[in-house]
Amino acid sequence: MDLALVPIAEVDMERKRNGGNLCINGIVRDVYESGGRRFFSLLIEESQIPQYRRRVLENRCCQQLLPVHIIREKGKLRVFYDHGGFIQLKDIYKEWRRSGINLASKNITTVVSVVSAVISAENYLFSCEELSLHMDTVFVRPDTGEVRLAYIPETQDHLSVTDKIASLIKQMIQVTCDEQWTVYGEEMYDKILSCNDSISGIEKLLLEKGREICRIEWPEKSEMRCGTNNKPGDCPA
Predict the structure, then answer these.
(1) Which helix H or strand E contains 206, and what residues bound it?
(2) How many CB atoms within 10 Å of residue 77?
(3) Which residues are within 8 A (CB) of 131 and not within 5 positions of it... i.e. 6 or more apart?
(4) Mean residue pLDDT across the chain
(5) In terms of Cα–Cα distance, which of 73, 237, 72, 52 is closest to 151?
(6) pLDDT at residue number 229
(7) 8 Å CB contact between 108 and 210
(8) Which residues pair with 78 in a beta bridge?
């Protein structure tokens, strides 16, 4: 029997707990494998995901959110997130560095995709103020760069979508450790917090910055750090 066709509730997940683990909101979660797919699960209060949102998630209506399977467990919802083919944003930098690609360009493209996913989710009546949005919940497909979000409702301290996007950029600056992205990321962080713009306006701002990053050649560190009065050899390597 093809496990891919079996409802998740019928699969003995305890015997499939061999996919390693990942961390969500500071808590290590087991990764399950079934029918060639990979899942992590969370136990969520039933009131946190209304019935219509469950249908959107389980029927894969919003393609920019991770699809889920939901079963009831002890009066709550056990939500299995299907992240097959995708890895957490925080784990993809090693591969990006190894490939020698421009990290600033990759980062801005990823943030644009995150904003696009947020807009798509809002179109399906998801409340994005209740959506966890950080490097644990952003998933990227390594071969294509496609981005999907894990819809994990927040229970308290709901920040605005603008604050969450700015915070994500700040996290990416810290993890990337790339001089070019630090300059551009800090600029975008400040602009997003100060512009008081709509989510569509932020998307436009990010797209413009992405075109700038692709158009302008980033100078060598030695050129940036040399003053006009410096002599050759004065700059650090």
Answers:
(1) helix 199-215
(2) 19
(3) 118, 121, 137, 149, 151, 152, 153, 154, 164
(4) 84
(5) 52
(6) 43
(7) yes
(8) 43, 71
Concatenating the DSSP letter of every residue in 105-160 gives HHHHHHHHHHHHHHHHHHHTT--GGGB--STTTEEE-TTT--EEE---B--S-PPP
Structure tokens at 212: 């700038």
DSSP 24: E
> Any residues with CB less than 8 A from the CB of 237 and at least 6 apart, and which?
222
Give the model's pLDDT for residue 224: 46
C-alpha span between 31 and 117 (Å, rounded): 24
Round to whole Å and give the CA distance between 143 and 92.
Answer: 11
| pTM for this prediction | 0.84
CB-based contact 169:150 (threshold 8 Å): no
Backbone φ, ψ for residue 87 (5° rounding): -125, 160
| Average pLDDT of span 160-172 | 95
pLDDT at 12 over 70: no
Q: Which of these, 42, 49, 48, 45, lies nearest to 25 by C-alpha position?
A: 42
User: What's the pLDDT score for residue 157?
Assistant: 66
Q: Round to whole Å and give the CA distance between 85 and 181.
A: 26
Q: What is the DSSP letter of 65?
A: B
Distance set, CA 188 to CA 83, 114, 158, 220, 235 (Å): 29, 15, 22, 22, 28
Q: What pLDDT was estimated at residue 16?
A: 55
CA 137 to chain centre: 5
